[in-house]
From TrEMBL:
Name of the protein described by the UniProt record: Sugar hydrolase
One of the protein's GO biological processes: carbohydrate metabolic process
Every Glycosyl hydrolase family domain range: 292-756
Organism: Pedobacter paludis
TM segment ranges: none
Glycosyl hydrolase family 92 N-terminal domain sequence ranges: 26-286
GO MF, one example: carbohydrate binding
Amino acid sequence: MIKKIILPCLLLSALAASAQQNLVQYVKPIIGTEKMGHTYPGATVPFGAVQLSPETDTLSYEVGGKYNGDVYKYCAGYKYEDKTITGFSHTHFSGTGHSDLGDFLIMPTQGKLQLNPGTASNPKGGYRSAFSHANEVAEAGYYKVKLDDDNITAELTSTTRVGMHQYTFQKSDQSHIILDLMAGIYNYDEKTVWTYVRVVNDTLLTGYRQTNGWGRTRTVYFAMSFSKPFKSYGRKSYDAKQAYRGFWGKFNQDQNFPEIAGKKLKMYFDFDTQEGEKIKIKFALSPVSQDNALQNMRTEISGWDFEKVKAQAQATWNKELNKIQITSSNNNKINFYTALYHAFINPTTYTDVNGEYKGLDQGVHKADGFTNYTTFSLWDTYRALHPFFNIMQPSRSNDMVKSMMAHYDQSSLHMLPIWSHYANDNWCMSGYHSVSVISDAIIKGTYNGDPNKALDACVATAKHRDYEGIGYYMDLGYIPAEKSGVSVSNTLEYSYDDWAIAQLAKKLNRMDVYDEFIKRSGNWKNNYDKSIGFMRPKLADGTFKKAFDSKDTEGQGFIEGNSWNYSFFVPHDPTALIEMMGGKAKFAKRLDTLFTMHLPDEFFAHTEDITREGIIGGYVHGNEPAHHIAYLYNWTDQPWKTQAQIRHILNMQYKPTADGLGGNDDCGQMSAWYMFSSLGFYPVSPGSDVYALGSPSVNNAVLNLENGKTFTVEAIKQSDKNVYVSKVLLNGKALSTPFIKHSDLTNGGKLTFYMSSSPNK
């Protein structure tokens, strides 16, 4: 009788663990919008092509012909510290340290029509409005704010390719909706190459905008539909005088004219509104054509039920969030599910509903059996985000690799993406880290395309001699300091990428390729100066550069980091690095120094990406090159120090507040680090099937895998005090080393940590 009772209870318990929970409630998109996080609070869906979010100022990229440093604060368009909103635009990067986008800004107003945005100090001098965070709501898939100056309530939601607006007006015969086609992020006078708008009828218009800049040939098509006919409309052109304009001057194009074009255009639409009347807008995007934008709109939002679209967006988010169900404190849940939310924003869908997309060759292509993606911030995301996808989003990871291969096929340079950006490569940052993503996906069984073709693409990219010092690297085994300002970090990152290529070649039994690239993967040794124990710039004559400071981030041969952090960047061969640095005891002591030293402000005064908030001792968590370092104690005899440091970083660098991120989220990399580390394991070297163990901050987590299996993490007696691991069981068997394999996860099972307040030495 007892057995009959227990069995159903166990079944109910298992069912409850996998049942959908309301996890949207823990997502706070406002996290990271203050200071350095560079996230945005607006509405999007998982991996959506539309990111509909408020802008809080209109800074130019340049002032007086020089870079305007203040523009860096607006990489996501929104800064929590600001007091005004200039409008709501449809494209944004999440957490980047450089920017673009901010396309098609919409702003509702009442009273006298104003087409300039005004200033933060005088919002009433333009169409912008004051707002208060007290009247602001930011949720997964939904954003709401009261625009104080005109007492208009703005609400936003979205589908994959369509943004939906809902504006609640006061009674007026002077209600307006402004469409600013000049606005943008990292904007400047010549950024917009051309804009075209066609007014189809009194509720529909279509068009496109072409911009240059970070993506130099970026064209976005749109379709915009109103729930209510406008009574009149017009435009204002801010174009400079041209030598020749044809004979369009025969028309008055400023009012009620159905076809307009130019570089600098703003449009307005006039309405009579009743008290509390809601005017809704559907705004669809396409990389291909106006017709496709209209098809995207009609396919994804057929009617005008805003609440239905919002509910659909949040249900989509909830389904994705339920892929991992954790038991933890409320603040930990907020941090975890907001991190999961941020991780599932990018890369972004770059395929219309009919499968078409614009390729790197600027031609129209059709994705055959996959979704094409863009927004690959690979210098950041190869480290943890893409490995996280190989566990929790394997089908999407497969499509992302196929997108990279399509990029390679369409590239005139025959290179895999460095930083993929709306049918462009903006070539930002160093390394050729798409090879890491591809190798990791194939080695972990995610990619179902031709692996040998993928390896060929990796090899071709790694041998592109005229790209950022690769020729010198191939000939000398390092990049001379005279030839590159980031010579050391490039050599280190190329070495790791080459190791990833070698691992793929080994898996495919391409031993000639393996031999070549495993040898190249040792090139990091050429920049290691044994006499001082640091990575150091080397000159073409083989001598080390004399002027050198291991703490400085400027002029030392590193990108976004210093030698103290980069000297540990050999994720593919920690054993050799430890030996080079004098053995396990000396190496661990050196790690101790990194985490406890003081790094004076002067050593990061000249970099935008490193601030005091993101630093622990000399360890820079707010930037990516150091993200694996705390796990390196696992290769010494002191793994308990990994456990202590991981928990310290989790507590110091991630908080459930607007300023809760210690650095740029960088398209989800910071968030992926948080999730891996809070679950208790991390991919130190993607391209390997091994994860290093740390110290889980959750009490329990169930990973609902795409293959139908579950992997459970349990942390017995886990608490803020009990950060040390006394023992670990995998499926009931004790582990003798602090490592697990990818197959341990994907086969399903249970990883049990027994936590303690004192280290197990």
